[in-house]
Specification:
mainly beta, seven-stranded mixed beta sheet, 11 strands, 0% helix
Length: 126
């Protein structure tokens, strides 16, 4: 059974940076697209970023494009989300996810991801 564990969240001030990590165990995700989603209380889970299986293509939601960078280290079976210029509206519980099928191009749809972590909290406030 695949297992994803996020880390790197915390409480920071506006303009600060954080790097989230998602370490996978149970199987290799080197041939799987992966993504980051976030959720705040009372709201639906929101797509943040995704990367295709080969790490050649990434996509972002408009609100984070240019500030966040998604990357994947297949040797470490780890997914990252570098978050710069953080804003209060970035406050959320961040989840990583792995696609259901291998060799995917990356997707914004949560239903296309079959493995999820438990989440790591990011709080941005002054």
């Amino acid at each position: 059974q695949a297992h994803l564990v996020e880390s790197g969240g915390g409480s920071v001030e506006p303009g600060d940076s954080l790097r989230l990590s998602c370490t996978a165990s149970g199987r290799s995700f080197s041939t799987y697209a992966m993504g980051w989603f976030r959720q705040t209380p009372g709201k639906e889970r929101e797509f943040v970023a995704a990367i295709d299986w080969s790490s050649r293509r990434a996509e972002y939601t408009d609100s984070v494009r240019g500030r966040f960078t998604i990357s994947k280290d297949n040797g470490k079976n780890t997914l990252y989300l570098q978050m710069n210029s953080l804003k209060p509206e970035d406050t959320a519980l961040y989840y990583c996810a792995a696609a259901r099928m291998p060799y995917g191009l990356g997707t914004r749809r949560g239903v296309d991801f079959g493995s999820w972590g438990q989440g790591t909290q990011v709080t941005v406030s002054s």
